[in-house]
Amino acid sequence: NWTMARFLDQEIARIRDLVGPEGQVLGAVSGGVDSTVAAKLMKEAIGDRFWAVLVNNGVMRLDECEQVERDLKQHLGINLTVIDASKDFLEGLKGLHDPEQKRKFIGGKFIDVFEAEAQKIEEAAAKSGKGTKIGFFLQGTLYPDVIESLSFKGPSATIKTHHNVGGLPERMTNGQGLQLIEPLRSLYKDEVRELGRTLGIHEELVMRHPFPGPGIAVRILGEVTEEKVRIARQADHIFISEIRKAGLYDQISQAYAAVDPSRAVGVMGDKRVYGYIIILRAVTTTDFMTAEAFNFPWDFLQRVMNRIVNEVNGVCRVTYDITSKPPGTIELE
Ligand code: XMP
């Protein structure tokens, strides 16, 4: 009968067989559950012949890049290269207001940065004495992603372009002749979490909320600027910390703070201020196709509002988005 431990053993054996004693594998990681579990599985199967790459796109959450680096290198022992391309991304986002244009830019830039790095890793891998050159590309595709791409145009594919489920594998596999490895393609999200636990990944990482590839760029309405990135990061950090402190994190499917670029008037001390509006969003969902706003206790929202207006410079209002999906979406863009 099927158990997660047996699935893990079989997958490890299958990967070793496929990759061979000399083969090397490349993969992008984001710090999300899927790519982390897939990477740890590869680490168990072939050790440092798996090369993970994390691209800092400048729109990750507060201290997230450093956190992911610690988790993957120190906690999980994964052979990870971090590329800081944040300046290039933020530069390129200037003047872009349309959500789909922002997604397209981030997706395209990600591919460029990743491919340039892949080239360097290929060279390093060839010289490393760890084996022959890179012949495989790891992708943390889940069963629902497989279904969605089979079903012609899934609703989210037509409504928003999800860059992390398109583009990259196509270019790496057809363009660079790498063979695709998708060890999670028969699993649902909760099974991936279970596999993560079986692999010894710590609970906080296994239970992380999903985070979109375009990051907080789709949580800053309209044009992304460095100031708005700072505001979104600080407000989000306060919101998520308070959610954790209140013990609510695992009851919520996804939560974040967004920045509304229109500004409102307020008073602070005895001064009139003119600042940005923060929109808090927290939803519960089973499949991310429909969702409900989370029903927070009133005093929780008041506490978060107080902290954000007091601690985040440039903000004078905090709102909570109660829209369900549909008609809303989980992200604001
Ligand atoms: P929506 O906003 O469509 O979000 O209700 C559904 C789920 O998809 C995530 N999402 C994205 N993920 N790239 C991603 O990798 C994207 O462009 C993107 N847009 C939305 C969203 O965070 C939620 O989990």
From TrEMBL:
Q: What does this protein do?
A: Catalyzes the conversion of xanthine monophosphate (XMP) to GMP in the presence of glutamine and ATP through an adenyl-XMP intermediate.
Catalyzed chemical reaction(s): XMP + L-glutamine + ATP + H2O = GMP + L-glutamate + AMP + diphosphate + 2 H(+)
- Which pathway does it serve? Purine metabolism; GMP biosynthesis; GMP from XMP (L-Gln route): step 1/1
**Lineage summary:** Eukaryota, Fungi, Dikarya, Ascomycota, Pezizomycotina
Record-annotated GMPS ATP-PPase domain positions: 2-208
Record localization = Cytoplasm, Cytosol
Record flagged with keyword ATP-binding: yes
Coiled-coil residues are: none
Report the protein name in the record: GMP synthase [glutamine-hydrolyzing]
Entry EC no(s): 6.3.5.2
Q: Where along the chain is ATP bound?
A: 30-36
Q: How does it assemble?
A: Homodimer.
Q: Which UniProt keywords apply?
A: ATP-binding, Glutamine amidotransferase, GMP biosynthesis, Ligase, Nucleotide-binding, Purine biosynthesis
The record's top EC class is ligase
